Sequence to fold (720 residues):
Amino acid sequence: MTNPNEMISSEFTGAAFGAYQTNHALNVLLNSMREIVLYFDRWGVIRHANARAYEWRKDGQLIGKTFVEIAPCWDDPAERQREIMQVYRTRRPQLESRERALEECGDCWFRVDKIPTTDECGKVDGVMVVISDITQSVRRELAIKESEARYRAYIANSPDAIWRYDICPPINTRLPIEQQVDLILKRAVLAECNEKLVRLYGVGSASHLIGLPIYHNGSPNLSADITDFVQNRYRLEDREYEHLDSSGQVMSLQSSAIGIVENGFLTRVWGTTRNITDKCRYLARMEYLANHDVLTGLPNRSVLYRTMNKALKERGDEQKMALLLIDLDRFKEINDTLGHLAGDKVLKQLGQRLQSMLNETKGLVVRLGGDEFAIFLPNLRNAQQAAILAHKILDSISLVFEVEGLRTEICASIGVAICPDQAQDVSAMMRFADVAMYRAKTCLQGVAVYDSAFDPHSPKRLELMGALGRSIRENQLILHFQPKIQLSSNKVYGFEALLRWNHPELGFIPPNDFIPIAEHSNLIYPMTLWVLENGIRHCKQWLQQGFHISMAMNLSARNLLDDRIALDLKRLLREYEVPGHLVELEITESTIMSDPSRAEAALARIHRLGVKLSVDDFGTGYSSLAYLKRLPVQTLKIDSSFVRSMLNDEQDEIIVNSTINLAHNLGLRVVAEGVESSAIYQKLVDLGCDEAQGFYMGRPLPAPEAERWLKESIWGLCET
Fold:
């Protein structure tokens, strides 16, 4: 639309308006304008008006009226009338003044031009007023100002720090992510922030922060944060990090950000930062209370379950674990006699004692509730280590407690479950340890390791007991033979017979699953007798083929203390015509120490048959060296757990070396188990060990393969 100022200027003459009604073209032009056009004479009275003016004042009463009369709702109409007269008097136009009126629809705004007009002689003869309705634009302008005011008020009063980084020059969002991250680090500069950010960073004013590059924002993982920001389409939500405030205290902060992308270029980044230190401390406290016992400060049952689950999932193939359940005996007497406060003090002291027991062993001590505690050991050398620690814990618990000026003593029962020997999940370990603990309490043993033989609720035990009895009677068991090498000659001198059970329906059953069942039932003796007879029979067969090979077999505690064993062994040696010195019986330290006097007498009877005797798994039990030297044994076998790691563990090497020297000083030979590499083999040679067995020399083999191994192996046969 053509500006009326250009159409009707100060040169517009009164004569032209005088001819207004007859000048049809000018009339059409004025009526086509969107603006309101009014012509006032020298007296300030309207003489002419265009069609838009009549639409504005629908009553049609314009001619002959003043501005005050036609616009009573105008903001100070009398002043507007004076302005019209002033333009007439001064000959100076008033252009683009903004004026407001209160119409029926509300406040309206107008842009008003007041322009003097002259006649042919150049004399002012009136004033033309051009009114443009600018209500919509003014309302938009006011809305923008109000929005900006709210925005400024929000930023100023926000509980969060609000900031804006400008990217100069903007970054092309089509660039590779790594390049965008690098450019943001170089180009992003803080351009705006509120006072909350100023206080958060402990500076005097925003001027100390404005202009700082983004890498000064204090996030320890800024590059990773920006990478996530770019990858997430220029958004980052609730990213938490820690920041040191001006006093050196650690604050927990949480930031969110959104990037402004214009025409494919990142131009700026808006964001908020919130101080969540109090929230984090509160949540940490709540989490601590949810995971710890309030009285002792120890972790609780839920922590135990999570820790065990995680450890079991990450367990290595050879890694052993143990769970110890501890239940205090007669603790109720302390509560009943001294009161619950005294009982609480005992539990606190006990928690500290249990934790001190793990100074040298990695583990977790928890309080399950009441007078029950648990210890989880995630990395053991062998099962015996858990039993040894359990006995030490029992000794620690039995020490005197100082309570209310009184000295009192308590005792406990400890149940032990081993993974993977007995259980491989949390539920089974908890149940098995509980069964073992009640076994220890019932039998007054103090410590008991889980055994399916005294687990009345073990379906597997019942099934295997029935199947094992049939397998012994029907000759379904087999022996595998592992070679034993003399280190001085690098030649084989014997085999160890190892029992295997391949059930026709259940498949291969590990020895650890069925031997403990046999040991705690009446099956142990017939099973041992089967092993002795078949081992001696194979020894006889190889002797007839010219292989002068000794045969080592294992005896359990119940076998050793059974009066029948020496008689049956004598019968088998005579029946198969095998010299006694070609048979070696291996017994563990715990077997000997279960009943030392009877064990000594039984070993003496076996020794009189010419049979050799060996102490198996030496170093893992509680045997007395003073007692050991009185026994008629010829050999000590170092447990494989020490041998396997001796090259990497100085303590294990010391144990192996000390055992070899000790055995030699007692006149005994030494066999090292678990030799799995040439390096371990050579180390044992250097340490003066006598014999060795392990996968490096040969795995356990069925009889036909063992016989072929004898004929074809690089390990020659020892001379007799």
Residues 1-22 have pLDDT under 50 and may be disordered. The chain has four domains: 4-139, 158-280, 295-450, 481-712.
